[in-house]
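Hello,

Our lab assistant flagged a job as stuck in the queue for most of the afternoon. It eventually completed. Since we weren't sure the result was trustworthy after the delay, we are filing this so someone can double-check. Below is the sequence as submitted and the structure that was eventually returned. Let us know if re-running is recommended.
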Amino acid sequence: MKASDPGRYGSLRIKGPDSADFDLNANLGNRELSRTFFAELARRNRATSAILAQVGAALRSPEGPFAGTVVDRVVR
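-- returned structure --
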């Protein structure tokens, strides 16, 4: 197993409202709040998927941190 440096991905950021104002414990009984919550959640999921795909590609890249190693799984 090769140690990783999580700080190398510190510059990755999901564009949009600051995460600090995203209430994960929103009152989803409120229809308008629920609609807004799930729209923002879907937006973040799309952005996160794109970031993870880029990180995966970088890890498997011949110039990446695991150059010369066969990567089957990445464990955090």
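-- support follow-up --
The delay was a queue issue, not a problem with the job. The result is valid. Residues 28-64 form one domain. The chain has one helix and no strands.
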